[in-house]
Recover the amino acids of this structure.
């Protein structure tokens, strides 16, 4: 029962916060302390964020790709964790990592294990295909 | 019950096959057809492998890092899938991707969702931090 609730909660979180940019709903989905346990290449790797810090991270990440969308592939719930594999895409409309906006669609895959406290997320352990993104940005710039 | 068996099975697979190189045990762990559903940057991305093909993939992957070891972080079982987040390290003792052996330890993190048929694996959906590995190899070569 709780597993199904948490999976639905995670899908809603990805849809409304990451894809939709509904920043005011962050406190409904995120615990007061959110720990980024692993996220190589992410500027917030290793940090603990409050709601304001979490909002800043999402705003900064969405700025170059304002239409970005996450699509879950598999969602697994077990104990206090939920794992999700996902596709991501976004149109490169702002500067990122030294690459000026190209107007091209960038695609990425990744997986994330989220920790739950009740029905709110208290952190994640994630790896994204950043090498693939780098190669796409470089090809578009060439 | 089956969830616990599959988690134990996956841990044993990572330990004996990927870390230990016990190639003769592959048929005990792998279904006759193994599908690599997602593994960006991996030469076998998108392919379906039989036991011989699977062995070739593992032998090729282990050659530059013969002491490689995977250490699971979280393991989640749900339905016919098991997700695992992991640390990897190996000593760079053979040439890989144009980088000659440096003798240095390389580290990586990743996550994998494995599909099960009974107690054998029939495929995976994975992302590894290949950008982090590339940066380490480049730093060691410089």
């Amino acid at each position: 029962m709780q597993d199904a609730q948490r999976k639905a909660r995670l899908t809603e979180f990805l849809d409304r916060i990451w894809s939709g940019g509904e920043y005011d709903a962050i406190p409904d989905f995120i615990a007061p302390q959110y720990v980024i346990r692993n996220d190589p290449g992410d500027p917030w790797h290793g940090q603990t964020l409050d709601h304001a810090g979490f909002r800043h991270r999402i705003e900064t990440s969405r700025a170059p790709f304002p239409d970005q969308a996450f699509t879950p592939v598999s969602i697994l719930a077990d104990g206090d964790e939920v794992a999700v594999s996902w596709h991501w895409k976004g149109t490169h409309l702002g500067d990122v990592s030294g690459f000026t906006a190209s107007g091209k669609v960038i695609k990425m895959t990744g997986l994330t294990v989220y920790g739950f406290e009740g029905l709110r997320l208290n952190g994640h352990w994630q790896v994204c295909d950043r090498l693939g993104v780098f190669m796409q940005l470089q090809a578009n710039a060439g």
Summary: The CA atoms of residues 27 and 109 of chain B lie 27 Å apart. The longest helix of chain B spans residues 2-19. The longest strand of chain B covers residues 105-117. The interface with chain A takes residues 3, 38, 40-41, 73-79, 81-83, 85, 109-113, 125-132, 134 of chain B (CB under 8 Å).
